[in-house]
Amino acid sequence: MANKKKLVVLTGAGISAESGIKTFRDSDGLWEGHNVMDVATPEGWQKNKTLVLDFYNQRRRQLFEVKPNRGHEILAELENHFDVHIITQNVDDLHERAGSSNVLHLHGELLKARSTKNPDYILDWKDNLNLGDCDPNGNQLRPHIVWFGEAVPALDEAVHLTQQADIFAVIGTSLQVYPAAGLIDFANFNVPVFYIDPKPAQVANIGKRLEIIAEPASVGMEILRNKLLN
Q: Beta strands 192-196 and 30-31: pairing type?
């Protein structure tokens, strides 16, 4: 692996949208008809656990109906040429299903559950999660999702990966959800940065070699692959 350049890729909802997974930022903070504050905050969980569990049960079921798209597949194929590390804001498993081996989930994973009292007690979970599903000490399990207002435990590792990148790419993210959006600032000054998004956000002059590819993820990844391999 020593001779392979390290390609670090930050992905967001835009890469999964092409597989049919809805993004909530498209519709005034509503996610599948729900106010985000009701289903993606600790306060929403305390107010109505049944609603929150049902919401993520629906998301989990939806996940089994979709499959990775060409954007996911190209990222996996690039492992033949680069030491690829993906930092994703997405809670789906489409990167893994496409064949990517190094995926860091900043915002948790839909297919896991964890104890409400012991954050280190995490289980693989593919079925519905219900009230009464508990850890061995009788504490209710919750979705293994980083909700708004909660700490992002994987952030330090994400920063470390970004600092090591020989090439940094951003795919399908608004670059408005912090702290993930701030990762781009940790890429070294001379590292080429590629930003793929059909409606790219304004990026401050970061002094790096920034190239914007204003395309959806699958089209943009074809373009990026050709650039990287030629």
A: unpaired
Helix (H/G/I), strand (E/B), else coil: 26: helix
Q: Which two tokens stand for residue 184?
A: 């781009």
Look-up of token digits 């009292």: 117
Tokens of 205: 């002059």
Q: Active-site residue among 72, 95, 107, 144?
A: 107
Pairwise CA distance, residues 46 & 49, whole Å: 6
Q: State the chain's mean pLDDT as an integer.
A: 91
Whether 95 sits among the annotated catalytic residues: the reply is: no
Domain range summary for the chain, segments of one domain joined by +: 1-21+70-77+154-230
The answer to whether 108 and 58 have CB atoms below 8 angstroms apart is: no
pLDDT, tens only, 98-157:
999 999 999 999 999 999 999 999 999 999 999 999 999 999 999 999 998 999 999 999
CATH, domain range 1-21+70-77+154-230:
3.40.50.1220
CA torsion 127-49-144-24 (nearest 10°) is: 100
Provide the residue type at 70 as one letter: R
CB-count burial class (<10 Å; 0-12, 13-18, 19+) for 74:
middle
Tokens of residue 46, six digits: 């305390």
Distances (CA, A) of 160 to 98, 120, 165, 191: 25, 21, 9, 15
Tokens 């839909």 sit at which residue? 110
Model pLDDT, residue 129:
98
